[in-house]
Amino acid sequence: MSKAGDFENNDGVYKTLLESTQAIPWKIDWASMKFSYIGPQIEALLGWSVDSWVSVEDWAMRMHPEDRERVVNFCVSQSQCGVDHEADYRALTKDNGYVWIRDVVHVVRNPQGEVEALIGFMFDISERKKTEEKLLSLQKELEVLSFKDGLTNIANRRSFDAHFEAAWEQAQREQQPLSVLLFDVDFFKQYNDLYGHIQGDACLIDIAQTLSLALDGPRDLVARYGGEEFVVLLPGADADAAHKVAERCQRLIEKKAIVHALSPFSRRVTVSIGAGTVVPDEAALHTDFLHAVDQQLYAAKHHGRNRIEHVAVAVPNLVQAP
Ligand SMILES: Nc1nc2c(ncn2[C@@H]2O[C@H](COP(=O)(O)OP(=O)(O)OP(=O)(O)O)[C@@H](O)[C@H]2O)c(=O)[nH]1
To answer: Ranges for the GGDEF domain (predicted)?
Structure first.
């Protein structure tokens, strides 16, 4: 007799092989929906004894409630159609924990083509799931970080752009005002030259925190626009409201009293502010509006710094500044 023949005739060999694998083999009789076999490895993995696996009910009830309906419905429908399939779910352990399982199911038919039994393997995939979950949370963290400025921890330019575009479209749709404030730290090059770059960084962090404190609207956003420039987005704020926020920012920075020996303004760090308010009509472009606000910042610098200039022209429908 051939070696293969020897092997085929030896049920014990099969059993030993099946029961020494990591994967846990099982068999369910289709007519009775009862387990006719389950590998003893199941007890080491989940804690339930082999004898406790009687019917598909035991299988279904030892599944996480959030997974049960989806998995049971899927497996029943696939089996009824005679299609091999696999499903991932959390299996309940005897001590009330959960283990991620991948069940790989083969549908066995008799010579007439009728479903006779289901056989399968359960794989412990908890390690893989842990890695997947960790990757997912790292991905989320990365998404958050990619919208944050690394130095000041407030929103970055990319975040501002996304919020600004959304707010612009909403203002256009609802015909509501929208305001933007652009800030630039005065004489910052001299500050850096005098106190060094590290203290310059600390000054920018201080200003970012101060500006954050000045905002109270649920949709207001402060972001680092780049270098020593910051931007505040005020959806729904009319010119009056925006001007008040700009003044509050100025006041809070003044109160912070960051020493700048080369500043003509009480030897303290100050900011210049360009402000703009618009109720954008359908044709208005948000880039034109930002450009107009930037022009105001330029004007604030040009007119002596430490001041607010509020835009009143250059974009259709611009609301008159106070
Ligand atoms: N420490 C620090 N300095 C920065 C950072 N980003 C930009 N700067 C500095 O900011 C300074 C900006 O200089 P300028 O554009 O000449 O502006 P200014 O000196 O503030 O002059 P005015 O705006 O006209 O009042 C430069 O010296 C930059 O190196 C940063 O992240 N950290």
So the answer is: 176-313
Mind listing the domains of the chain with CATH numbers? 3-131 (3.30.450.20), 146-310 (3.30.70.270)
User: Does 204 contact ligand 1 (Cβ within 6 A)?
Assistant: yes
Ligand 1 centre to CA of 228 (Å) is: 5
Q: Whose alpha carbon is nearest atom 21 of ligand 1?
A: 187
Q: Rounded to whole angstroms, how far apart are CA atoms 319 and 316?
A: 9
State in Å: Cα 276 to ligand 1 middle.
23
The reported pLDDT for the residue numbered 321 is: 56
pLDDT digits (tens, 9 = 90+) for 34-79: 999 999 999 999 999 999 999 999 999 999 999 999 999 999 999 9
Is the CB–ligand 1 distance for residue 200 below 6 Å?
Answer: yes
Catalytic residue IDs: 228
Q: How many residues would you count in the chain?
A: 322
pLDDT, mean of residues 287-301: 95
* Closest ligand 1 atom number to CA of residue 191: 19
The Å distance, Cα 200 to ligand 1 centre, comes to 9
Predicted complex ipTM: 0.95
**Ligand 1 atom 7, closest CA:** 227
